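Let's see one such:

===
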Amino acid sequence: MSPCRRKNIVQPDHPQLSLSAQCRILGISRSSLYYRPVPVRDDTLALMKSIDRLFTAYPFFGSRQMVAMLKRDGLSVGRHRIRRLMRRMGLEAVYRRPKTSQPHPAHPIHPYLLRTMTIDRPNQVWCADITFVPVSRGYLYVVAIMDWATRKVLSWRLSNTMHADFCVEALNEAIRRHGPPEIVNTDQGSQFTGSAWITTLTEAGVRISMEGRGRCMDNIFIERLWRSMKYEAVYLQDIADGFEAGRVVDSWIDFYNRQRPHSALGLRTPDEAYLVRIELTKAA
């Protein structure tokens, strides 16, 4: 059962089980019941939506190009404000650049392990990423765990903050349901370099791979997932709040996994490709 559906069966007035007990039984965090988008001014939210649409179409745009494109659309905005909002949304332009600083010792950066690797079986490599989802009075974040070889979304979580907890919850669910993979690949975001995420992977015996800064091509399949989700679901409607966002994301990911064929998978769906390759792996 998806996280969204599990939240829907929580009973606030249950005579015997507290909310905390129900959340513990269902494997969800209590805080996930209370999505309250951060209040944002209407003009700021509209600008963030415009930035998100542009970045989804042109992930190589930095703040300078954003300002120029927005100006063409009749929006006169300063570069510092655009840069601040992009940072707030977790967006970073994609381009090669030299390393100009050392990572903080509390957040070690792991090498990218996939450069020469052939990835052809389920649970060999997983990838994870976070994206921004606008709602009527604020914004939320979605994290997804994907199987690299079959494109199957193994788990996901929605959050109103960028704290690492919701990422670790999604990772734990994926491991619980499918067993640990050999490698997990992510970007260098603080959610994926922090101790909670690293400890979870290390204790499960999983090798850690991290793409270079600003290199979405190192995690390209999950970047395509976000692009498809936004153009096929998120951008097609005005999402009111976190519960509606959860329903939209849940419905689309279910469609993506079970019904949406992929040419790279021989026109199979991710679910079909995952199951077929699991059986082939067992037979081998």
